[in-house]
Amino acid sequence: MPEQFGYFAVARVLFGGQEVVITRTGYTNELGWEFYTEPHHDAEALWAHLETAGKPHGMEIFGLDAMNIRRIEAGILNAGSDFNHTTTPYDVGLGEFVDEDKGDFFGKTALQNAKKETRHFGIKCAGGEPLISGAVEINSKQVGIVTAGATSPYLGHGIGYALMDSAEHGAGTTVSVSCKDGSS
Fold first, then answer.
1. Fewest Cβ atoms nearer than 10 Å: which of 33, 85, 98, 152?
2. pTM score > 0.70 for this model?
3. Phi first, then psi: what are they for 28, rounded to 5°?
4. Is residue 87 part of a domain?
């Protein structure tokens, strides 16, 4: 392990007898590690090594769903679910990272012509956990879709993200959200 290994650092290290790429990152708002495997790796052996090395420290293995709540609570978006090839950075509140004054780049004209309003918002559901890909409605008319949902142990109710059809249904708008248990 490199001696000075700060956040977003990357290195090749020996791990369980195999050289892997590691980064000091994590999309859950925790200072975590990511291990990158390649086709030549014995992934099962790496996994077994991780379990064995972590056991004395009380480390438990859990699925991605367990981390989803952490990223939602931290306000972190996930590429592929919260935004994708059909959205712009402006749609999901990332417009400040677009430099339209920069020289020519792929998609520049499209971004210059795009609406600049955010249409991706946090949601809270007192009665249930938002259903990912579930409908967001106003007066029985679909106006958006749930992109992330979980039950917050801290808040004691469902929270998530919704991508709305337009920015007009933003913060403060009362909506009906499809929940995992079939309620809304």
1. 85
2. yes
3. -100, 10
4. yes
Mind listing the pLDDT tens digit of every residue in the chain (184 residues)? 556 778 888 999 999 999 999 988 766 566 677 888 999 999 999 999 999 999 999 988 777 777 788 889 888 899 999 999 999 999 999 999 999 899 999 999 999 999 999 999 999 998 899 999 999 999 999 999 999 999 998 889 999 999 999 999 988 899 999 999 888 7
8 Å CB contact between 72 and 151: no
Inside any domain, residue 183? no
Residue 139 and residue 48 in one domain: no
* Boundaries of domain holding 87: 71-177
Residue 22 lies in a domain: yes
Q: Identify whether 1 is part of a domain.
A: no
